[in-house]
């Protein structure tokens, strides 16, 4: 695939095809898409573990519903991240051609919206996973802990991307907000992990 060729929608790819696309020397899929998919997979694990925890956790049905909503919110963010990154590449090429800065800054600001949302959803998924790990079915506790750790990793990765994209944007509070969300997700994941010690 050439650098300008757009891959098939990620959610329509098999896992093997996505891994091939990810491994190719092309700009996308990239870290932002992987962060979004990590959070999506974590939410899927939460839906499954909550569904298997109805006898152990009174709020399991609500947690399962919340997990499915978060999964459906996170899943399209992998594709959205790729599209936003393509706009950054286009702005970079335009800047190189015109030697101007504003289109690049605007593209990076716009591109930061997707990882910002990934960081937010990741923190929410980590909270659901921690609740399931603490009170859910002990037979699926490892899956709930895995969900919490994946959600935290996705949130932290997304926060790093926000910081990178907005490194020169003075007065933008999104890097600090993303870092707070990532720290919250990491705290929740650590709490979930303590349930197995």
Number of strands: 0
The description of the largest β-sheet is: none
Mean pLDDT level: 91
Number of helices: 8
Question: What does this 3D model show about the protein?
Answer:
- With 197 residues, this protein is an all-alpha fold.
- The chain has eight helices and no strands.
- Helix 3 packs antiparallel against helix 6, helix 4 (77-98) runs antiparallel to helix 6 (113-135) and helix 7 runs antiparallel to helix 8 (174-194).
- It is globular.
- The N and C termini lie far apart (47 Å).
- The mean pLDDT is 91.
Draw up the topology in text:
Layout: H1 15-23, H2 31-51, H3 60-74, H4 77-98, H5 102-111, H6 113-135, H7 141-165, H8 174-194
Helix pairs in contact: 2-3, 2-4, 2-6, 2-7, 3-6, 4-5, 4-6, 6-7, 6-8, 7-8
In short:
With about 200 residues, the protein is mainly α.
What characteristics describe this protein?
197 residues; mainly alpha; 8 helices
């Amino acid at each position: 695939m050439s650098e300008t060729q757009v891959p098939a929608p990620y959610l329509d790819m098999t896992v093997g095809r996505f891994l091939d696309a990810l491994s190719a020397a092309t700009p996308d899929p990239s870290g932002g898409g992987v962060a979004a998919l990590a959070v999506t997979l974590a939410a899927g694990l939460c839906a499954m573990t909550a569904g298997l925890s109805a006898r152990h956790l009174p709020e399991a049905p609500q947690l399962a519903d919340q997990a499915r909503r978060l999964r459906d919110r996170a899943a399209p963010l992998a594709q959205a991240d790729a599209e936003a990154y393509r706009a950054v590449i286009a702005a970079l090429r335009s800047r190189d051609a015109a030697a101007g800065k504003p289109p690049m800054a605007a593209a990076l600001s716009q591109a930061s919206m997707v990882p910002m949302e990934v960081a937010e959803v990741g923190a929410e998924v980590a909270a659901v996973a921690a609740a399931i790990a603490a009170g859910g079915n002990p037979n699926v506790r490892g899956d709930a802990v895995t969900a919490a750790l994946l959600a935290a990793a996705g949130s932290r990765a997304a926060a790093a991307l926000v910081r990178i994209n907005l490194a020169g944007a003075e007065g933008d509070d999104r890097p600090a907000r993303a870092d707070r969300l990532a720290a919250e997700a990491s705290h929740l994941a650590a709490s979930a992990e303590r349930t197995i010690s």
